[in-house]
Amino acid sequence: MISVIQRVRSASVTVNSRAVGTINTGIMALVAVEQKDTEKQADRLLERILNYRIFNDDQGRMNLNLRAINGGLLLVPQFTLAADTNSGNRPSFTSAASPEKGRELFEYLRTAADIIYPDTQYGEFGADMQVALVNDGPATFILQVSV
């Protein structure tokens, strides 16, 4: 699984002019599922997102994780992160999971997050989403959990 996480001051996802997920200070995570991913990768990715130390402590160092600051988490499905961009001028999505598998693992991730970190909001799988955010820093990181 691949995720681009961004430390944000605020973030939201809108579908058909309806807000489906909104957070204040926290992490917005764009999430892609690849063909070989399993629930094990989803569990590990969630653990890494929640524990990744990207928030400043009293000395201005990135030593605090999302839990330490009681921040919000916004998980947004985005299959285009799984694109192969190594050649040509058009991305290839051969490594991306099928829509069915992508939905299944994103829903698994959602269920796990609801249990582990209740202050989680979500984008909508398969929808045309408008994502807005105020990136804090900016601080943006790529997390990849492989088989």
Oligomer: single chain
The share of residues in extended strands comes to 35-45%
Whole-angstrom Rg: 15 Å
Described by the principal axes of the CA atoms, the overall outline is globular
Helix/strand/pairing category:
alpha/beta
Overall pLDDT: 96
Q: Level of helix content?
A: 10-25%
Total helices: the number is 3
CA(first)-CA(last) distance: 9 Å
Number of strands: 8
Biggest beta sheet summary: 6 strands, mixed
Uncertain runs are none
Order of helices and strands: EEEHEEHEHEE
Gist of the model:
It contains 3 helices and 8 strands.
What would you note in describing this structure?
By secondary structure, the chain is of the alpha/beta class. 24% of the residues lie in helices and 39% in strands. The chain has helices at 39-51, 66-69, 99-116; strands at residues 2-15, 18-23, 26-32, 55-56, 62-64, 72-77, 120-122, 129-144. The strands form 2 sheets. Strands 1, 2, 3, 6, 7 and 8 form a 6-stranded mixed beta sheet that branches. The protein has a two-stranded antiparallel sheet with strand order 4-5. Strand 1 (2-15) and strand 2 form a beta hairpin. It is globular and about 45 Å long. The model has no long low-confidence stretch (mean pLDDT 96).
